[in-house]
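seq as requested:
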Amino acid sequence: MTTIAVIGYGTLLKKGDGASPEVFTTVAAVTSIGGPNLQADDIEVTDMESPSGYKEFISGLKDGGTVDFEINFNPTNTTHVGLLDDQVAGTLRNWKIVFPSSVSNMTFSFAGTVKTFNLNTDPNTQLSASISIKVSGAPALA
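struct tokens:
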């Protein structure tokens, strides 16, 4: 049987500029991307007649979670400085995760704000940053 697995190499994270038409710029030197981590609230609906004494739940409001990613940080790179500027300003932007061409250029599109920007330094490795974008609204896979 042939595998359906695809490697992540070539996946891009792109940030929108808010213009019309919107232009998306690739964030430079991304080393990994995680998320969005979709979830829904649990609403307990247990009553006196719930079967076998077990709690019952229904699905509540959904949350797009976060998109967490790592970069090889360069303080002179405009896409990196822009991420820090967006975190300080709390700017809501449109984002895209563009999957490799082997997946027919599918994208995860979402709006979000840069929630955290954590600079990592070590004397024996490259400068890096761990960044988290809080998803606002529903992400879309297309």
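The chain is about 10% helix and 45% strand.
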